[in-house]
Amino acid sequence: MKRIIFFRAAKSQCSSGEQSGVLAPCRRSAAYATIVGVIVLMLSACGSSSSPTAIPTIVLDSGNQNTSVPASNSDNNDGGGVIASAVVVPVQEAQLAFSLPGSITKVNVAAGDSVQAGDLLAELDNDSLKLEVEAAQRTVRELTSAAAIAAAEQAAANAQKAYDDAKKKVDSIQNRHADNVTINYLEDQVTLAQDALDRTRDAYKQTGGRSDRDPLRAKAATNLYNAQKAYNTALGNLNWYANPPSANDIALANADFDAASAALQEAQWYLAELKGESIPSDATGSQLAQLQQARNGLQAAQDRLDQTRLVAPFSGIIGKVDGLAGEYASPGQILIVVSDTAHLQVKTTDLSERDITKVKIGDPARIMVDAVSQEFEGEVIVISPVANTLGGDVVYEVTIAFTEQPEGLLGGMSAEVTIGE
């Protein structure tokens, strides 16, 4: 409540006390009024005679909340830039929580501790998960051991031989066609071979009375053997070209070749994978699938184990620890906060919608931090596309990077920024 005080001239009334020889209170009031009147007349004589000066009304603040509205930041800025309140914040801040429920067994940090990226901060009870990881690691080791690589090399060699044999058979079937001239030639070769066979057979018969160890009989036997072999070869060649393969023979040969080709490719892919060489993403094979399944199982077990550990995602300072060993942690419950206090930036808190249109990425900024009474240089790096409300006003958050990282600042310190020239 405000009190309004008015000043008025008092009426001059005297009582019988005037005759006492001492001015009565009434007469003193009259005298005071006369003096005030003279002063007012003197002041009036200095001004315009036609426009008397009004006596102002004096308003005294009773201490209630000030209801006046301050002018906008941009209206008070004579430098042409946009002024806004801001707060110093870390460039990175992580709120860490377990994704699995469980009992906390270790808390290795306290608020204020410095940590490095990868440091183990807290851990849940995970003995059973450790056993799963060890079993999966053992399976992968067995599948990728030196013995497994040697077996894969042998399998690839056998697959190569099977492929070569199948290819020869396909090639021979595809070339199993001859013209009449070739057929006549092959028939002549059979005739000559038959004649040679008959003559050597007769010669061998003539040595029938001799011992098997007799040189003449041994030579005759050898000649007969060679003649029979030559005849068989000539007859086989004639039959091969004179009798084309059936459709079924061709289909079987091609099927054998395709199977051998696929087996060789899969054996080579598997061997390359064991040796750490690159293979196509669509590589196939039962052994390759078994190895990939084992590795996937190991990764899944490791992921479950990792979910029981809170690890520092970057180097910084522990800002909060809200958990003790032996307590139960619920999924998503924030237990530890890590801040990168070595890298700070500034975010505005009350930049109005009237001023946001004047701000652009890359604009220079001056940052005044009251706590250290220093001004720093900066640059606008992010303008939030989403508005917030502050006391009924629409405001936008603008992020400003320090040109040089300052020393002595802490996250949460208030600042005032001037954006633009």
The general outline is elongated
Q: What is the CATH architecture descriptor of the domain at 74-91 and 343-419?
A: Beta Barrel
- Describe the oligomeric state of these chains in a short phrase: single chain
The N- to C-terminal Cα distance equals 45 Å
Spans of at least 5 consecutive residues with low confidence = 1-78
What is the CATH first-level class name of the domain at 74-91 and 343-419? Mainly Beta
Mean pLDDT: 83
- At the fold tier of CATH, the topology name of the domain at 74-91 and 343-419 is Elongation Factor Tu (Ef-tu), domain 3
Main-sheet strand order equals 3-12-16-15-14-17
Note the beta-strand portion: 15-25%
The total of helices stands at: 8
* CATH superfamily placement of the domain at 74-91 and 343-419: Efflux pump adaptor protein, beta barrel domain
Q: What is the tally of beta strands?
A: 17
